[in-house]
Amino acid sequence: MGQPIIYLFEKMKEEQVEDIRKTAVDHIVVDAHRETPQIIKDDIEIMLGWDKELGQYLLDSETSRLKWVQSISAGVDSYDLDRFAEKGILLSNASGIHSVSISEHVLGVLFAAFRGIRTSIINQTNGIWSRENISYKQLSMQKMLIVGTGNIGQQLALFAQGLNIQPYGINTSGHVTPGFIECYSQKNMQRIIKEMDIVVNVLPLTDETYQMYNESMFLAMKPGTVFVNVGRGPSVNTTDLIEALKNGQLSFAALDVFEEEPLPSDSPLWTMENVLVTPHISGLTPQFKTKLLAIFKQNLIQFLSDGTLAKNEIALSQGY
Questions:
Q1: Is the per-residue pLDDT at 1 higher than 90?
Q2: For the chain, which domains are there?
Q3: pLDDT digits over 33-66, tens only?
Q4: Tens digits of per-residue pLDDT, 234-273?
């Protein structure tokens, strides 16, 4: 057994790699994008980012020293959480990094819908000067149900209040959360959703949230509801979503994530006039690597001290 390794699968700047080396002097820091050293895989103790092939080897190896993985995303549904729990491997995510970006994205697509901006862009492309096909309404005073009251949900609620939008929240227990007029439990969602004008999904993907937006949920909404999904694609039954858009149960949907990505070229969503498709861009964040390193370093210092993590540790049994 050799010196423990920190394996950087996420590409970092040279000065950031050096900063990690100075923090973890007893570890070998391997930058996967600049180095191809002959390392002993089982000596990898920490991984920044997730190399699926190498990660699977480490999960299967009986002699692996892997103890902690720092994900670069907020969602961790792509990880084998049962195997992590079985092997006692810690997992932390990048929650908080994307909050402002995703919140701004949600407001952007809502303005595009409410102020006729999406239609105007299409008209401009076709050289059409017309108000006839532009619908508009006021975003102010709309009731917005934010499904997920974590970092992203709280940031969105704060922004919404500044625009005089009324934010309500859904979380697992209905516990009070700063920034929301009122919060409700997920089990009571269908009861409260009929009162909302806008529904925004920011939930992670778990067994409980898989396909939660289905025919039953859409029928529970007020006719003409606006739906925004910046959470996870598989939380939505796409067939039921398309039907809700066709029959007017939903007046508009802004979709950044999908059951299948890239969205297939033959999907009806591409050509529906009441749909805005974006290619999973809501979380794109300026200075992402700097913000990620701040989380990683805080956790690294704590991990080197006592084997625990300072922030963003995933409860493996819950999936978030």
A1: no
A2: 5-96+287-306 (3.40.50.720), 99-277 (3.40.50.720)
A3: 886 668 999 999 999 999 999 999 999 999 999 9
A4: 999 999 999 999 999 999 999 999 999 999 999 999 999 9
Write the CA distances from 221 to 49, 100, 198, 260, 274, integer angstroms. Answer: 38, 27, 9, 25, 17
Assign 80 to helix, strand or coil: coil
Beta bridge partners of 6: 29, 46
Angle ∠(260,261,265) on CA atoms, nearest 5: 85
The residues facing 46 across adjacent strands are: 6, 68
Q: What is the value of pTM for the model shown? A: 0.93
Measured between its terminal Cα atoms, the distance across the chain in Å is 33
**CA gap 164, 33 in Å, rounded:** 46
Q: Within 10 A of 111 (CB to CB), how many other CB atoms are there? A: 14
Cα pseudo-dihedral 181, 231, 173, 213, rounded to 10: 100
Burial 76-98 (b: 16+ CB within 10 A, else e): bbebebeebeebebbbbbbbbbb
